[in-house]
Amino acid sequence: MPVIGYVRTARTELERTPVQAGANRGEEGVLELAAEYVEGLDGLAGFGYAWLPSWLDRPDRPLASLTQVPYLLRRAQRLMGIFAMRGPRRPNPIGLSLVRIVEVIGNTVRFAGVDLLDGTPILDLMPYVTAFDRPPGDPGCGWFDDVTVAEGTTPEDLATPG
Fold it and tell me: Which part of the chain is the TsaA-like domain (predicted)?
């Protein structure tokens, strides 16, 4: 699968990187697109948000089990199936970040909502479209409905008793 570019962020350690873009809305990063994909940015600046599918090329350890303790349940040590969580150790380590578009200039997209390590490969970039992406009503989110995530929460924060 071709990589279209790489993100530049201040994050270099998985344990100190926020667990989701939505839990770190203020921190900015930059997507640097490869030259052959720059033309594809035409029209993107008119959107408020975009999906960044990424290849999580540096998980802290490879997939060992289809049940794991999610970062958000570390204190409870509660196991969940890999498909009921959003952690980086997956059969295919594909990340999905919903980021706010700050600016599109040349081959770069400046965005807010950093949850990726510096240098993470990006597989694609797709605008968020409310009519297609926001489901109707108030859909249930399983065990996530019982968890509160503070702004900027990292795996490291979740490893210590609170």
Answer: 1-137
Amino acid of residue 16: R
- Residue ranges of the chain with pLDDT lower than 70? 59-61, 160-162
CA separation, residue 20 to residues 49, 85, 101 (Å): 15, 12, 16
Largest CA distance in the chain: 48
Rounded to whole angstroms, how far apart are CA atoms 70 and 120? 21
DSSP string for residues in 149-160: --TT--HHHHTS
pLDDT score, position 160: 59
Pick from 155, 150, 126, 149: nearest CA to 59: 155
Query: Quick one: which of 107, 126, 97 has its CA closest to 17?
Result: 97
- In this structure, what token pair is assigned to residue 112? 């807010």
Measured from the Cβ of residue 21, the count of other Cβ atoms closer than 10 Å reads 24
Distance CA 122, CA 17 (A): 17
Q: Is 67 exposed, middle or buried (0-12, 13-18, 19+ CB in 10 A)?
A: exposed
Tell me the domains of the chain and their CATH numbers: 5-130 (2.40.30.70)
pTM: 0.88
